[in-house]
Every structure is written in C-alpha cells, then in structure tokens.
Design brief:
mainly beta; Neuraminidase; four-stranded antiparallel beta sheet; Immunoglobulin-like
Length: 338
C-alpha cells in the first residue's frame, strides 16, 4: 500500500538533482543529502531539512566545491545532532585530489566541528559512516595509496564524539595474490568490534582466473586483529593519536614492508618497498611456510625500494619479517608464481 509519493523540489539553478542519502532525526524530521549538477563531473553537495511530507525547513550548500564524488553520507549522533561527509580542500598540497571530511551539524544546520583527512599524498574517500554505542564515529572507504603494494588499499577510521581523530588504518586483502580490497559499508556489533564489507579482486584458486568477490573485514575497536594485533600484515599503514591507545601498544605502527614481483629483476623474483626511518638499520628476513630461513638482507637507509637478493625460489608462499633496532616493525607474506 502506497502511503504517499512526493517529488523533491530541485535546487535552484541546477538542472540535475538527486537525493543520495536520507536521515530520520529524533524529532521525526528528515535530513536529505542532495547532489546538484549542471555540467559533467561537477556535483555540488547540499543538505536539506524537511518535515515528513517533504516541506523544506532549511537548505544549505555543504561548500562551493563541485567534483564527481560518491554520495553524501549522514549519521545521527547521540546528542541529537548529526554528521555528514563530503569533500574539501582542492588545489594546494592536495593537487586537486580533494580531502574528505566529517562535519557535525546541529538540527538548525549550524556547524559544530569538522575533521578533514588531508590528501597531501593520496586521496582517502569515505563510503560509509556509523555512530558507535559510545558515541564515536567510524567510517570506511578506500584510498589511492599505490605506493605500498602497487594496488589501492582500503581504510577504516575512528573519531571521538567531538571530532578528534583516534586512529585510522589501511588494509590489504589477506591473500598476497589479490589485487585490491575496497570497503563500502560498516557497522559495530554488540561487543564493540567493527565489521566492514566490500569487494576484493583475486584469482580463483582452481582456475587462476581473476574474479571479484564479496568480503567481510572484522577488527576490534582499535582497528586491530585478535591474533596479529595492531601489527598484523593485513594492516599496511596506521595513524594512532594519543586520544586512545591500543589495548596492547606495539612498536612499528604505521610502517609497512611489501615484497612484490618486479619484471626487470626476472620473473618470480622479489623486491622490497618500504617506508622506514633512516636509523637504526633495518633488516628483512625471508622464510618458507615451514619456517626455514632463506635470506637476510639489510635495507638501505633513506630509500624506499631495493631488490631482494635470494637464491632461485620455487613457487609457493613465503613469509617475511622486518626488524629495526631489535623490534619487529612489519611482517607479511608473498607468493612466487612461475
């Protein structure tokens, strides 16, 4: 049974209008996220508050930036206010990549606070927002960070109810042959763990044909894993502030070592990309899946790449750890295919 159908009024002076998000406020009013467009690849974000039959209470642009973007995302906060995500900071250090932000509004449309994820090195987009039981805001998406693995990473972040960053982490798919993993939605379970879902591109284990598959990523409230902790090899980059510390702090957060195949070194050979302080000296150890040592190599300081010198390696999965100053700063796995 259809109760009511309404056409939403267009944004003035914009030919194409699309409502991409709707939020029901505690006062039984709606917040609409609307994309307005007159020309290709330039979508402007607007917020509109309406009553339950579509009458406009107020409307305002999020900012004056128009680019081709994912939808606006909205979520209710515990204090009756709400948060929205969009993009900001074109030009300058972002080189027009655009920096996504999370912004808190009161129900009259006044801004409480804003946290911006500055894209000075690569873009981090936001695909979903969720407000946790304790009032924290979590979000997910994917990035343009190709430097670590040669493929984009996915990411999660956590903000306090006042808009302070607690942590953000980037992840890769747990099978080394996979090309990428993208996250599009997330939630929190009754234990405070975070569950995100999305898409990964990986080869079929039988046919070897590349195909996409749905994935679930489950981490604790700090974005870490039960067995691997905050240094699990699936986590390739981290930023953790002093607002909230991990349950078991470990050195090396935010450092990644990523062996990959490099064609000019010969088919099946490996190289190491890394992002480590110049001192003390860092060392990489390579093992087979039975734990037998294969090679140890010092990583040149102040560099980001070096070939990994090994004897000829038979096809299979290999494990590696990187140590610096007596501390393990990265561990992971890589496949050799011939």
């Amino acid at each position: 049974m259809v109760i009511r159908q309404d056409t939403i009024l267009a944004i003035d002076d914009y030919t194409f209008n699309s409502s991409t998000e709707i939020l029901l406020l505690p006062a039984q009013e709606y917040i609409l996220g609307i994309g307005a467009q007159n020309e290709p690849d330039k979508i402007y974000g607007f917020l509109r508050k309406t009553d339950t039959i579509g009458n406009t209470i107020w409307e305002q642009p999020i900012n004056n930036i128009g680019v081709a973007l994912p939808p606006i995302h909205l979520a209710n906060l515990k204090n009756g206010h709400f948060v929205a995500s969009w993009v900001d900071s074109l030009g300058g250090i972002t080189e027009n990549r655009g920096s996504y932000f999370v912004r808190s509004y009161d129900t009259d449309g006044n801004i409480d606070w804003q946290y911006t994820f500055i894209s000075s090195d690569y873009v981090r987009n936001i695909q979903d927002l969720y407000v946790c039981a304790n009032g924290d805001i979590i979000g997910c998406g994917y990035t343009g960070n190709f430097a670590l693995t040669g493929n984009p990473t996915c990411w999660l972040f956590r903000l306090s109810p006042n808009g302070e960053l607690k942590w953000m982490r980037e992840y890769v798919y747990w099978e080394s042959l996979a090309q990428f993993m993208l996250l599009f939605a997330l939630t929190e379970d009754a234990h405070g763990d975070i569950i995100a879902t999305g898409y990964a591109n990986r080869p079929d284990p039988v046919t070897g044909i590349w195909k996409g598959q749905a994935v679930l990523l489950k981490v604790n409230s700090m974005g870490c894993f039960g067995e691997g902790g905050c240094n699990d090899s699936t986590i390739v980059h981290s930023v953790v502030t002093g607002i909230e510390s991990p349950p078991s702090p470990q050195a090396g957060s935010g450092v990644a070592v990523s062996p990959v195949k490099v064609a000019w070194l010969g088919y099946g050979e490996l190289a190491v990309f890394y992002n480590l302080p110049a001192t003390p000296a860092a060392t990489l150890h390579l093992y087979d899946v039975h734990g037998r040592h294969i090679a140890t190599q010092t990583l040149p300081p102040s560099a980001i790449f070096t070939p990994l010198q090994t004897p000829p390696l038979p096809p299979g999965i290999y494990l590696y750890t990187a140590e610096q100053g007596g501390t393990v700063v990265a561990r992971g796995k890589v496949a050799v295919v011939r």
